[in-house]
């Protein structure tokens, strides 16, 4: 439906039809976009806390990383999230050491903690850059000792390892062919486990004719679930590439909602994608296609969404210009 109506609108304008007909097409586009947003929010309602994290990483961080609570409440209102849910989410993020508050008279603003900034920086590389170095054939192995580590810490480490793409290859042994060492260091420092583990890098010899490490990809990484998630993403967002680029066709607020929902959905997939080297993935890999698609749609909605963001949080022209530099570096296409 959305693609059909957008094609009709494009046809009216390219054929130089009367102004009334073109305006009707623009109005139809707006109605269609509103319906798409309503459907997207109803089909997969974003959790308030998770959406706050997305907005902080995608929108607030380039603008200095700090926002007043009222501005955050206003930004989340179009998503159907009321002020009570925003306050509760912010409270929990402060408790979890993602954010810390700053008082301004009767008002409060929030910004990322040092730990939150490190975690955002690691997520940033996964979402916006996607240019892993050429794989040299080495695997990183992390061994948990049988003794000397509590069950609780072992469970937390296992959860963090899996979040960063490491998989359990055998009891107490985790591995990844191209792990982000900065991410691994951040986990070990945050959980105070650097002296508890053994890490090494290995290259398989193949001298004894044993199984290759590459065979572990099929048995240890559930790529079918990742592929399914990417396909669902395309089903939900594929029509957005047909959106008109001119500013009057879609409101700045709608551009911001589209941009945020796009990154929110993509972030949830990417952060569970093990990001294995291309040599160990099916060819073509759907994740590469998804990255290129998100880059195009993000670029299409960036200017309008920034207009809404600047108006909502009260950015000065100088602040808005300063935010534009890191934004243009995202996805390499901008």
Give the strand content.
5-15%
Q: N- to C-terminal separation?
A: 29 Å
- Mean of residue pLDDT? 83
Order of helices and strands: HHHEHHEEHEHEEHEHHHHH
Number of strands: 7
Low-confidence residue ranges: 11-25
Structure description:
With 334 residues, the chain is of the alpha+beta class. The chain folds into four domains: 7-35, no CATH class; 48-114, Arc Repressor Mutant, subunit A; 139-202, Alpha-Beta Plaits; 218-328. It is built from 13 helices and seven strands. The strands form two sheets. It has a four-stranded antiparallel β-sheet, covered by helices on one side. Strands 1-3-2 form a three-stranded antiparallel β-sheet. The protein starts with a helix and ends in a 6-residue tail after the last helix. Mean pLDDT is 83; it is low at 11-25.
Any chance you could write out the topology, listing elements then pairs?
Layout: H1 2-14, H2 19-43, H3 48-60, E1 66-68, H4 69-76, H5 83-95, E2 99-104, E3 107-112, H6 114-129, E4 139-143, H7 151-163, E5 167-170, E6 173-176, H8 181-190, E7 198-202, H9 216-220, H10 223-237, H11 252-270, H12 286-313, H13 317-328
Antiparallel strand pairs: 1-3, 2-3, 4-6, 4-7, 5-6
Helix pairs in contact: 1-2, 2-11, 3-5, 3-11, 6-8, 10-11, 11-12
List keywords for this structure.
single chain, three-stranded antiparallel sheet, 4 domains, Alpha-Beta Plaits, 57% helix, four-stranded antiparallel sheet, alpha+beta, 334 residues, Arc Repressor Mutant, subunit A, globular
């Amino acid at each position: 439906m959305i693609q059909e109506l957008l094609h009709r609108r494009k046809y009216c304008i390219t054929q130089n039809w009367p102004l009334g007909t073109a305006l009707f097409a623009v109005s139809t586009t707006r109605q269609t976009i509103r319906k798409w947003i309503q459907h997207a929010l109803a089909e997969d309602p974003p959790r308030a806390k998770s959406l706050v994290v997305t907005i902080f990483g995608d929108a607030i961080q380039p603008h200095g990383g700090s926002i007043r609570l009222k501005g955050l409440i206003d930004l989340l209102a179009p998503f159907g999230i009321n002020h009570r849910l925003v306050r509760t989410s912010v409270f929990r993020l402060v408790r979890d050491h993602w954010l810390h508050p700053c008082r301004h008279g009767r008002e409060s603003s929030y910004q990322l903690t040092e730990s939150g900034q490190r975690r955002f920086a690691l997520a940033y590389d996964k979402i916006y850059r996607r240019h892993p170095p050429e794989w040299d054939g080495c695997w990183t192995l992390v061994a948990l000792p049988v003794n000397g580590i509590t069950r609780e810490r072992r469970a937390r480490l296992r959860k963090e390892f899996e979040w960063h793409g490491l998989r359990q290859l055998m009891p107490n042994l985790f591995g990844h062919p191209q792990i982000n060492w900065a991410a691994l260091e951040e986990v070990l420092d945050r959980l105070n486990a650097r002296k508890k583990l053994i890490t090494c890098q290995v290259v398989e010899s193949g001298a004894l004719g044993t199984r290759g490490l590459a065979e572990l990809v099929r048995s240890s990484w559930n790529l079918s679930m990742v592929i399914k998630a990417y396909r669902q993403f395309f089903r939900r967002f594929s029509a957005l590439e047909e959106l008109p680029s001119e500013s009057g066709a879609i409101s700045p607020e709608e551009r911001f909602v589209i941009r945020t929902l796009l990154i929110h959905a993509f972030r949830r997939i990417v952060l569970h994608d093990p990001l294995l080297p291309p040599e160990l993935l099916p060819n073509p890999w759907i994740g590469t296609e998804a990255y290129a698609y998100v880059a195009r749609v993000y670029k299409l909605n960036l200017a309008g969404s920034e207009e809404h963001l600047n108006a909502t949080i009260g950015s000065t022209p100088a602040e808005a210009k300063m935010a534009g530099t890191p934004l243009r570096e995202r996805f390499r296409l901008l």
